[in-house]
Give the backbone structure.
Amino acid sequence: MKIIYTLIKIIILLAFILLAVSNTQTIAFNYLPGQAWDLPLIALLLLFFVVGAVFGVLAMFGRLLTLRNEVNRLRAEVKKTAKNIPVQTVDNNADVVAVKHAAPAAELHPGINKG
């Protein structure tokens, strides 16, 4: 599977290199009235790709923080409910399994028995 991913990455890299080599003509980029930059087309495409990637990362940053907070909340909930899970001990001399503490299923999983 790694070989397939590597081949796909190489094909994409070669496509970008081909795109860069074939778009070397200079164009005028007018960013303000009367102001222009003469840039190769591939440089302008790369510039806008980077700007778009930065805006995309900034747009997802809020969602990342929300998901991180949710993960921390769920981890705390797992630790809290792990204390209520029954612990079984086995006596090797006898075939008896002793349960130290068992919480009702409704306490462990509040969604159970709700219709």
About this structure: Helices lie at 2-22, 41-82, 105-108. The chain is about 60% helix and 15% strand.
